[in-house]
């Protein structure tokens, strides 16, 4: 008699394989305006039979957020991001992604993640896409500060996602939690746990 499939165990195994693939993946390159901007690991790429699969649009978004913010915030031991895509518009060779970006930098006093600096802001990214499917970032836009905040979002974002973009609290807690989880995974890996 066949044993029934343990779906929870199977899901856990898939999660572990995905996590290990992410941690062991060779860095992918992000091109900004046709130049290599930064080399960062990508969260959405997978390894299958020792061959890295091409990164997804989501991984390019993650890399763009990390690369853009790396030089603007206080340094720490670990930088990470979480984003919620509100809308994606694809034309012939251009893709625009409207999202809420949460960027966080952590240090680990006594082995626990401590937020050093970061941001949470509406962002619009524009990518060109070549014939081989490689995305190149052509514009990184953030909402303006102060009294121009709301009007800048209204000008840039599509009307059907404008309200979501101005209400940063809609996604703040889930994005903060996602970044803390990544920071805890990072420190566990560094400690060999």
Gist of the model:
Keywords: Membrane, Transmembrane, Transmembrane helix. The chain crosses the membrane at residues 6-25. The protein contains 5 helices and 8 strands; from the N terminus they run αββββαββββααα.
What does this molecule look like?
With 193 residues, the protein is an alpha+beta fold. It has one domain (56-191). It is 35% helix and 34% strand. It has five helices and eight strands. The chain has helices at 7-24, 57-69, 149-156, 162-166, 169-191; strands spanning 28-32, 35-40, 47-48, 51-52, 78-90, 94-107, 114-129, 135-142. Strands 2-1-8-7-6-5 form a six-stranded mixed β-sheet. A two-stranded antiparallel sheet has the order 3-4. A hairpin with a 2-residue loop joins strand 1 (28-32) and strand 2. It is globular and about 50 Å long. The N and C termini lie far apart (38 Å). Mean pLDDT is 79; it is low at 9-50.
Poorly predicted regions are: 9-50
User: Helices and strands: which structural class?
Assistant: alpha+beta
Percent of residues in helical segments? Answer: 25-40%
Quote the beta fraction. Answer: 25-35%
**Overall geometric form:** globular
**Overall pLDDT metric:** 79
Biggest sheet details? 6 strands, mixed
Number of DSSP strand runs = 8
In terms of quaternary structure, the protein is single chain
Cα gyration radius (Å) = 18 Å
Helix and strand element order: HEEEEHEEEEHHH
How many alpha or pi helices? Answer: 5
User: In which order are the strands of the major sheet placed?
Assistant: 2-1-8-7-6-5
Cα(first) to Cα(last) distance is 38 Å
Domain count: 1
């Amino acid at each position: 008699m066949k044993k029934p499939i343990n779906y929870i165990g199977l899901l856990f195994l898939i999660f572990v394989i995905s996590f290990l693939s992410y941690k062991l993946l060779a860095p992918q390159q992000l091109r900004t305006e046709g130049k290599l901007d930064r080399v960062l690991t990508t969260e959405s790429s997978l390894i299958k039979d020792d061959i890295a699969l091409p990164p997804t649009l989501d991984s390019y978004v993650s890399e763009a957020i990390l690369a853009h913010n790396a030089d603007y915030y206080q340094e720490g031991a670990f930088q990470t991001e979480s984003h919620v895509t509100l809308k994606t518009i694809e034309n012939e060779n251009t893709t625009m992604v409207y999202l809420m970006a949460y960027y966080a930098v952590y240090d680990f006093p006594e082995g626990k993640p401590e937020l050093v600096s970061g941001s949470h802001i509406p962002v619009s990214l524009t990518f060109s896409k070549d014939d081989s499917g490689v995305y190149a970032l052509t514009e990184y836009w953030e909402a303006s500060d102060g009294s121009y905040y709301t009007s800048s979002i209204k000008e840039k974002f599509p009307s059907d996602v404008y309200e979501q973009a101005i209400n940063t609290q809609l996604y703040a807690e889930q994005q903060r939690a996602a970044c803390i989880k990544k920071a805890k995974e990072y420190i566990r890996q560094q400690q060999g746990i």
